[in-house]
Amino acid sequence: MESWSPPIPLTAVLAVAAFFYVRGWLHLRAMFPKLISVRHITAFVSGLIAVWIAAGSSLAALDHELLSIHMVQHILLMAIAPALILVGAPALALMHGLPRRFGQAVAHFLRSVPVQRVAKIVARPVVCWLAATITVVGWHVPAVFGLGLRSHWWHEIQQISFFAAGLLFWLPVIQPWPMTSSWPRWSAPLYLFLATLPCDALSAFLTFCDRVVYPHYASASRPLQISALQDQEWAGVLMWVAITFIYMVPAAVITVRMLSPQTPASQSTEILPQPAPQPSLKATQIEAV
Predict the structure, then answer these.
(1) CA 161 – CA 276 distance, rounded (Å)
(2) Which residue in 214, 232, 242 sits closest to 141, CA to CA?
């Protein structure tokens, strides 16, 4: 903890992202007050803060000492931060917050045929589910997990892959602007339920295993008065409880909204419904703003 200092590159990137998002959000609020709400900016900024807490705060200084802290990082980077950022409708706000020429170039790139084709494939629920599952299970294989503990660069790659997989995982559920889906909405709760299964298996293994799975933690210093095996048990329980609630709460919300007779079907397409772009917000007019 005494040697910890805030990482300047990560802090700068998150600060720049927040600046352009807020700039675009204010621009949109001035022009179309009903298009983007306070809820969106609150979610986006909270997501950036979650990323910084996981990878840039003093919490990161303890991940090599306690597996339970390492697990907190993984949950923040993969389950919490990506969901909050996507709820913030980042593409819509950033497109208006970036400098005009750059924003137009990004919009043109995103509308290109090759990008649209790749996006349709990558955003499929099966692909997103597999990406998240392979990332979680793969990085917790002891030999692979050890790479992130021994090498700074592998540790950075591990964190980036968790965050990227988290963004992919939440895409079919949150469906941020301008994403549209061709799959039935009832598949979202099933998708979330299936996502808990590999996490449950992994967390149960860590919780009930009678040996220390990752040798690094057996010889690491103990900031708290707990053994390496107890630390591993806490990590497993934390993953088990946190992932269950994080995935099942939105699944329950979506189910209730689908079954609620007073909720129009058109309003049941989002965990936190995003206001649909107004007819006047066509692509050409977005570029002109």
Answers:
(1) 31
(2) 214
Q: Which residue has the tokens 């988290």?
A: 166
Range list of H helices, the chain: 8-31, 38-55, 67-75, 81-87, 90-97, 100-110, 113-122, 125-139, 142-150, 152-174, 187-208, 215-219, 228-259, 283-288
The tokens for 289 are 């703003």
Residue written as token pair 């299970």:
137
Dihedral, CA atoms, 165, 166, 170, 171, nearest 10 degrees?
-40
Locus of tokens 């449950």: 200
DSSP 80: I
Using CA atoms, how far apart are residues 144 and 146, in angstroms rounded to an integer? 5
Q: Of 192, 191, 185, nearest to 258 (Cα)?
A: 185
Angle at 200 between CA 194 and CA 196, to 5 degrees: 25
Q: What's the pLDDT at 25?
A: 94
d(CA 78, CA 162): 5
- List per-block mean pLDDT (blocks of 10 residues) for the chain, which spans 289 residues: 74 95 93 88 96 88 87 95 95 88 79 81 90 95 91 92 96 84 84 94 93 89 82 94 94 88 45 40 41
SS3 52: helix
Q: What is the distance between the alpha carbons of residues 60 and 96, in angstroms, rounded to a whole number?
A: 33
CB 135 within 8 A of CB 144: no
The answer to whether 18 touches 59, Cβ cutoff 8 Å, is no
Domains of the chain by residue range:
8-272
Largest Cα span, the chain: 63
φ, ψ for residue 33, nearest 5 deg = -60, -30
